[in-house]
Amino acid sequence: MLFDLYAPTRTSDSLEVRVRSASAGPIALSLADSAVELGPIGEHRGVHFYRHRFEGLSCGASFPVRARHLESGATASEVTSTLPSPPGAARLRLGLVADPHLSTVSASIDDYATGTRRLYGLAGELMERYLPRLETLGVDAIVLLGDLVDPCTPETLARLRVILSRVSVPCHPIIGNHEPWSPGGEELFHRALGLPSGGHRALSVNGVRLVFLSTPAPDALAPGSEQLRWLERQLVEAPAGEDIALFSHFSLLLHPCVQGHRNDGYQLLDNHRALLALLARHPRVRVFAAGHKNVPSRVDRQGVVHLLSPQLIQAPCGYDVLTFYEGGLGRITYEIDEQHYCEVARAAYQPLWRERYGQESHRNFVLRYRAS
Fold it and tell me: What is the pTM for the complete model shown?
């Protein structure tokens, strides 16, 4: 019988625990000396959902979590931990939203069969809900990591502009590989969103230099290209004392989720080796965040933290908060509240659906910068 427990989100002083059960009725959920009795918060196609956040916990501590169904007697357990205390005060907090594939189509979750990978018709609903949610989490800005509209038309872009206009913090969109698949999509995308013609740009916020790359195809940043020369100047001329963060749609290295038989040959920038060497020469580069392959992932390479961000409409149906501290970096991945949406999408990856969630230490972490 299905009775499954997992902890999708960890902070320095809290843990969120979710339970999936084939049976309704109350469960007892315990963490260390804390215990609560919960009823289901929802149900979808025979699966019942429970959720609780344990707060006020010690930093960097390990906790056994246990759940027991009070009627059936089914049990589940897991050991998880809070994050270490942050390395100094927060300098900048960014929301990351990747690959929403917004269209003009709207749908209900009941329109999708269990096992549907991408819930395209729910993109608008989820963006309208979770961009404001990021505001409530205290982000200073939101970065949208490509494949924002699908197809890229005046109508889909108009819908995107309306959604962005309802968010009070700055939103920084970059192009993905899907926008150019529409005729004139690249030029239309940049013009509609008020971006430079090439799409790439940079700005400094609270002591962090944000570098937004335009990577609509793997051949972006080719040797000798204007954008590569621009990037080289950005790294050299970044104001003294600022950390540097780069944002792209495609990646610079193969993350665990796309290795082996999962490598379809379409996740890296063609010039990735030279770009990795370029970043290694600039120790103030702290992070390279990408979308496209949307398993929450982290790979540390030569002082740079390479991240992949999840998407709202495909398991794990999530979004990120990336925080720059005085002495380090933190990431927290949040799963959407609509667990029945997650259930429909994650069923496409049974029996290994947890692979779509990545490793726990990749989703939620706090790290100190390596000494230069």
Answer: 0.96
17-37, pLDDT tens digit by residue?
999 999 999 999 999 889 999
Token duo for residue 182: 């529409």
- Measured between its terminal Cα atoms, the distance across the chain in Å is 52
Strand order through the sheet with 328-335? 171-174, 141-145, 90-97, 318-325, 328-335, 365-368
**120, 142 contact by CB (below 8 A):** no
Question: Quick one: which H or E segment has residue 341?
Answer: helix 339-346
| Length in residues, the chain | 372
List Cβ neighbours of 106 (8 Å cut-off, separation of 6 or more).
Answer: 121, 122, 124, 125
Residue 340 backbone class (left: φ over 0; alpha: ψ -120 to 50; beta: rest): alpha
Pairing of strands 171-174, 62-69: unpaired
Bridge partners, 329 (sequence order): 324, 367
- Ramachandran sector of residue 234 (left: φ over 0; alpha: ψ -120 to 50; beta: rest): alpha
CB 159 within 8 Å of CB 189: no
